[in-house]
Fold this protein.
Amino acid sequence: METNMQLVPTVALRGLVVFPGMVLHFDAAREKSIAAIREAMETGDEVFLVTQLSTETEEPTFKDVYKIGVLSKVRQIIGIPESNNIRVIVEGICRATVKRGVEDDKCLYALVERKEEKGFAKNRAEYAEALVRKARELFDEYSKYTPKMSPDVMLRIIADEKPGAIADYIASVIAVPYTKKQTVLSELHPITRLEKMCEILTSEIQVMELEDKIAAKVEQAVDDNQREYYLREQIRALSEELDGVDGADEIETYKQKIASIEHISAKSREKLQREVSRLQKMGNGSPAESTVSRNYLDTVLSLPWDIETKDKLDLKNARRVLDSDHYGLDAVKDRIIELLAVRRLNPDIKGQIICLAGPPGVGKTSIAQSLAKAMGRNYARVSLGGIHDEAEIRGHRRTYIGSMPGRVMAAVSEAGSRNPLILFDEIDKLAADIKGDPASAMLEVLDPEQNKAFVDHFIEIPFDLSNVLFITTANDKNNIPAPLLDRMEVIDLYSYTAEEKFNIAKKHLAPKALVRHGIKKEQLKVADTAINELIASYTREAGVRNLEREINNICRKAALEIVKDEKYQKTVTAKDLKDLIGAPKYKEKIKLKDEVGVVNGLAWTAVGGEMLKVETVIMPGKGELILTGSLGDVMKESAKAAVSYIRSNAKKYGVTTDFEKTDIHIHVPEGAVPKDGPSAGVTISTSLLSALKGQKVNAHVAMTGEISLTGKVMPIGGLREKTMAAYKAGIKTVIIPKENEADLDDVVDVVKKNIEFIKVTKLDEVFKVALL
């Protein structure tokens, strides 16, 4: 059943009104507001922004805010130097009304009802058009009294034809008290809303006309010299009011901060002092240049030059923290404990850079957060996905207003210490274009011999990054440039088994979901049967993100019922899932049927292992080889090698086909999905021989391995993920290259118990097992 009701984190705004379709930034200082914003950013959900009735209220409750606000998306969070406040960039999505408030110790939550934009009757279309024209005319007149108004604002109003959207946009850009803006926001009907906006504009225009008349009279009464003196004094007074100190105190403050920095070279200190002297000489005569200079000094001096946290190297406590936050991942946990042990013996060790590589949703990012918590280090995350500008890493040069440090120095500043743990997320998704190669810039950041004097283009003085503990994550380590990969120790994280997913859901995901949605344990319980059904029939992934989404979906349904009936209690079983979250999305097991020319192949992807069917058909023709299914160059070469091998050994295998008069069509289903890799040779060869001889292939056999033209089976990679895919598909036998026998140690125990592994060195051995 569809519903417009949802439970979302809530932020009460002081003197600020947000409108749908509006992008703006504001500073958040209250702990509950910061918690709500961070939760929305981390989960990707919406946050409810609603205006306070009074700006005097310091700790507002739902009695202190308006009933109508805006559901918004958090686009970016920026830390403010030397404070616990944050700067937030949000985008309004749609109106919503508060139905019920939930005041948690962490933050405010509200059950809200979405209010999508209403339409209006066709017989009012002409009136609406006339009203839109009137609103544009009034706004054009209003803009004449506000010369700072950007021309783009008027262009947007002209381009839009919707009365409600025009009213929202005008209300967001004009300077009127927040109470008047809230009046516009609270009106749900678009035509009535634009009528109110026209009334406000008319009133504002009348006031500004009167102000202009008064200003004209005053200006006539003051001569040029007096006016210049008055303006200068006004600028100086405003500057003092905004800065809190006069110019001399500001310069002295800068000098004291520079003198107090210990971990900085004499040359760097001298450069900062010259910058302060330059700012002092500017005075108020060059506002643009002085703004750039102040911004530079504020940024450099806000860096944690001398702030350093002390590492906690208690191995038992670290293990306890890691186990409490994550189930499984023993190899990763062991390597982290080893890292801490080495640091305990040698605290000055450098260059321990770990890359966590694995499919999405297996815990790469969260394990880094747990490590920071276990070590007592400050934590900062830098997302590298899609970055294609070198300046994003090294910083922008100070040649224009708006330049800023790179993401590395911004992360250090955000962390607030010179030895934080910085996570470089998705390092395999760095791009390159004419603006430079960010991967090359990362070489300096991750090289312990170079990063002890890392120079950001904006900062322009060396900063020691050698004490920073860098952790990186990647879905596919093959996409990381070789020189960059060489600087990191790769730890592979693999797909979770069904048993691991069950324990993760029961011990971590479900309890967290209950807390997040404000539900008590006795109000909602998720039975073991329901968890197993979610894993088997509603999700098919390497990690647990979709599993977490489905559990959150259940909690939202329960939250709605609890709001309706406070005595609501339920234990969700497998039978309840269809009514709560819909029909199952996947079949538990793939149906396996013996067929001619159809073979089960195993493939590795960045999101885990997959089982692919390879199909071959033979038909009269001109000796052509047809390859379909979006195959890459490597798989095409494997197919050609398989055909060449079978043709050269046709007599040996009893193949009597005249290849000159026969077309061979090899296809891998799901043609829209690109496929490539050096492990399809044995699969294609088996499929081809089966089709040529008319022999069926054992459907309970899957295989992986590359071949040579002499029929040798060569080793492959990703065996653990491939065997996991075979296990999930109900395969009983897997053929692997003999040279991969050592890799069986990495295969999950439950897979080894349920699958027979046959190690082969030649194609003849493969045919004996697979062909019936």
Remarks:
- The CA atoms of residues 220 and 227 lie 10 Å apart.
- The mean pLDDT is 84.
